[in-house]
Amino acid sequence: MKKNKDFDFIRADRTVDHRSLGKLLSEIENDRDRAEEILADHYDDSDTVQVVGITGSPGAGKSTLADGIIGKLREEGKIVAVVAVDPSSPFTGGAILGDRIRMSAHAEDPGVFIRSMASRGSLGGLAPATFDVVNLLRSAGFDAIIVETVGVGQSEIDVLAVADTVLLALVPGLGDDVQALKAGIMEIADIFVVNKSDREGKERLIAEIRMVLDLNRERFSWLPPIVETVATERRGIDDLMQQIGAHAAYVREHRIAVRSVRIARQLEKMAADKVGRQVYAALGGKAFFERESAAVASGDENPYRIVKKIEKLITTRTEEQS
Q1: What is the Cα–Cα distance from 128 to 272, expressed in whole angstroms?
Q2: Per-residue pLDDT for 121 more than 70?
Q3: Which of 135, 149, 158, 169 has CB 3.0 to 4.6 Å from 60, enough for a Cys bridge?
Q4: What does the domain layout of the chain look like in residue ranges?
């Protein structure tokens, strides 16, 4: 879709209209139906915008890597948006970590827009509204978008639905990362980033990654490179940017094949969320689940009978509407 100039939040002086954009993002985060209306009219999946996802276990230095990448993009004169997905507060549902804390070096840069979002308990690590936010930012005039996931549970998987290029940050000396590779998490990475590569165990980790890649080489149309970095010292960031650029060129060359996979994943998530919201509303919302959970807690019911009840209610209301 051709970009609508009225939907461009980048001013003539190449600064971001933070106020207007922030207001619109809050609106679509809080009203998913409104988000659908807005993006139906303004969605633009342009080749000129690259979305880079950064994921990996907690402590891998994802925010520092993001900071380094932002710095390089800004040196090139690019306008950058960042979506930092934080753990949710169990009490408020809001993001626990603040965007200005995480990206302090660029928080006051008029050419950088940073948005923290709560994962809100999503098993995939990305709240459903994250897809809307990233799609809006794709359409809003930015040159590049960085999505940093919370990095716990299955957050690595959902980032495939929003990012063109996925960086998987690993750290030497953490056996969990090697186990993750063996468990198949390596399939999400377009680029492996061995961060904190000045630590002992770097050679072993790189050897493990190469072994897994070699065993699965026939499955790759793009063979993920391995980049060593020490993000706190900005070492290796230039090499990383070269690989990000190379993968961007690959995505452009194989646009339909690469992006159709991403979009299919996103459509699955969006459809599941849409149906889930409709079911939730049809059942009566929070009151229904509070009532039924109390019945389970008292021993009068069990979860499986309640699920059967939900199925029956949905079937009955569907038949009534048809």
Answers
A1: 10
A2: no
A3: 169
A4: 5-254, 284-321
